[in-house]
Specification:
Layout: H1 6-20, H2 51-55, E1 63-64, E2 68-69, E3 77-79, E4 93-95, E5 106-116, E6 119-128, E7 135-142, E8 147-149, E9 152-154, E10 162-169, E11 174-182, E12 203-205, E13 208-216, E14 229-233, E15 238-239, E16 253-254, E17 259-265, H3 266-270, E18 278-283, E19 296-300, E20 306-308, E21 311-313, E22 325-335, E23 341-349, E24 362-365, E25 369-370, E26 376-377, H4 381-384, H5 388-396, E27 399-401, E28 414-423, E29 429-438, E30 443-452, E31 458-459, E32 462-475, E33 478-491, E34 498-506, E35 514-518, E36 532-539, E37 551-562, E38 566-567, E39 571-573, E40 579-584, E41 588-591
Parallel strand pairs: 31-38
Antiparallel strand pairs: 1-5, 2-5, 3-4, 5-6, 6-17, 7-10, 7-18, 8-9, 10-11, 11-13, 12-13, 14-17, 15-16, 18-19, 20-22, 21-22, 22-28, 23-29, 24-27, 24-28, 25-26, 29-30, 32-33, 33-36, 34-35, 34-37, 35-36, 37-40, 37-41, 39-40
Amino acid sequence: MMRMKGFTRLTALAAAIGLAATSAVAVHDDGTFELEGNAVQDAGTPPPDDWQTLYQGGGSPTVFSGIIKDKNGQDDIFTGGGSKTPNFIADWRRKFSPPPPDKNNITNAYAANYVVSGEQVIYFGADLFADNGDAELAFWFFQDDVAPAGTGFTGEHVDGDVYVAVKFSNGGTQSNIAVYEWWEACDKQDVPGGGGPLSAGDCAADNIRVVVPEGPATCNGAHAADQPACAITNINEENSPWPYSPKSGTDGKFPPTTFFEGGINIFDAFGENKCFSSFMASTGASTSFTATAKDFALGDFDVCSVDVSKTCVNDTEDDDAPTAIVYNVRGCGYNDGGGAINLTTFQNSINGGANYVPADLAWYQPGPVDDGAGGTRDFDPTIDCDDPVKLADAIADGSVVGSPSTFDLGSGDALIYQFSETTASNGPSDTVTLGAQGTDGSPIDAASDSATCPLRTFAASFNVVKRCAADLEDIGDNLAVLINVQGTVCNTGEVALTNLTLVDDPMMPTGVAVTLTPLSTTLQPAGDTGDCTTYSGSYSPDTIPAGDICPFSDQVKATAIAPVNSAGAGCTLLGDGTSECEAISNTATCNLRAVNGDNNCATGPLSPLPSN
C-alpha cells in the first residue's frame, strides 16, 4: 500500500476520525479486555482478558509485550535537551542515574495487540513507583525496531508512528487523552494559532500531527462510545499480579493512581490496521511537546508477523530420474499478526544448501476445498496450510496472484505458494524462508519452515532366459562335446542398468565358469527401446554324462549396476550409492543325443536346438 502524502492523506485522516465517532463498539467494552482500573482478572473464565491473564500465559492477544521492567538493577532515563517528543530518535539520549523523580519513575510497562472483528485494538499500561495524585504518561508505538544503544537509541521514526498522551489529575478523577502520529511534513509554524483546541489533521508541533483531539479519557464514561481511545487509573489500592514494590505502601499492591491502563482502536483512529515493532511508555512529556521526557520503559512489540508452512510431495513419478527427482512443494504465507502485510521475499534451500528462488514459484489466493462430506468449504489457514491435499484443492480452485509483494494480506489470511524442485537427493529435508513487511513498510521478522520430502526408490530388476544345445566338434583327430548357450536378458525395472556381465554356471563340472557375451551391456528401463539384449557363448564340459541322451543342465548368472536411489531383490548397495544387482536364469537342459535305446551317448542322432 502506498503511503499518502499532503492534502490527500489529511483528507483520509479526517475521514477516518469521522468514522471513529460512529464506531459500534467502544474500546472499553468490546468483550476482549477489561479496562476497569485494575490488573486482576475478574471472576470467571476469560475473555475478557486482563493483564493478570496475559502475565500468567493465558488470553488471546496476537502479541503481548510481556511485563517490561524499567528498574532492573539500573534505571533507563531520558536525558538532555534533545529527548523531546518532536525530535528525531537519533537526538534522544539516555542515562542510568540518578533516578527520575519518584512521581515520574516507571516500574513496569506493558502492551497487548488484539484483532476484534477485523479491527486492530491495542491495550497498554504502566505502573509507577510513587503516587502524587497527578500523572502524565505517553505511549509510543514505533513501526521501526527502536532499542536502547549506548547513550542513545537505534531505529528511527516512520510517518504514522502512534503517540498516545494521557494526563490524570485530582487523584485520577479527571483525565484527558489525545492521539497523535509522527508526520515529518508537520512544522511548528503550521500549528494553528490562537491557543484554541486542535482538530484532527492539525499539526501539533514539529513532526507531530493530531489524530484524535484531546478530550476526556476515562473508560466507561458517557463519552467513551464516541472515542477510539480511552484510559483509566486506579482510584483505590489494587493487587499487582507481578512483583511490585511502591515507594510507600504494601509490596504487591498498587497505591492509588500508580497503575494506568488504556486502549486504542487503531482501525477506528487511523482508518486501517497498522504494524508496529516496538513499544515505549514514557513520563513527563504528555502536556508540553517542548518538555524533556523523564523516564521510559522500552521493549519489542512485533504486532505484525508472518508464518510460513511447507509440504513436499511427489505428484507423479513419471517425470523422475534417479539423479533428477522432481518434488512438488506447497505451503502458505500466513498473516498471523494484527496489521496487513505484504509478502516480499521467498527462498528455498535443499538439504541445507544455498538459498535460491524457485524458477516456477507461483502464488494463489486459495479457493474452496473438499469438506469431506461431498461438498466444499472455505480454506482455513489454521488447519489446511499443512495438508498437501487441501493445498492442492485450494490451488485448483483458486486464483493466481501475480505479485504477492503488492497484495495486501489481511490478518488471519493466507496466500498459497507452489513450486517444484529437482534434485539428486532422495527424500531431502529442505527449508523455505519467507520475508514480509507491513503495508506501511514496517519491518517484520522472516519466517521459515522445513519439510522432509518422501523417499523415491527406483525399482531395479531384470531377468535372464537361457537356451542351450549340445553338439560335437572336431578337435584334431577327436570329437569333443560343445555346449552352445544363448538367450535374452530383459530389464523389468524403471532404471537403466549398465555394466551387464553374464557367466554360465554349469551344474556339470567344467572346471571353470564361462563368460558369455551380450549384444549390449546396457539395458534401458522396461518398456523403452533397448530394454532387452541377446547373448551367446559355448563351453566344453570335462565329462560326459552316462545314459542314452547325455543331458547337460546349467544356469546363467547375470550382474548389472543400477544407479543411485535404486533398490530391488538381489541388489546390493555399493559405496558410491549405486547397487550391484544379480539375476539367475532358468535351468536349461540340453541333450547330446536323441534317444535310440542303446544307452550310449556316442551313437545316435544329435538332439536339435530347443525352439524356446
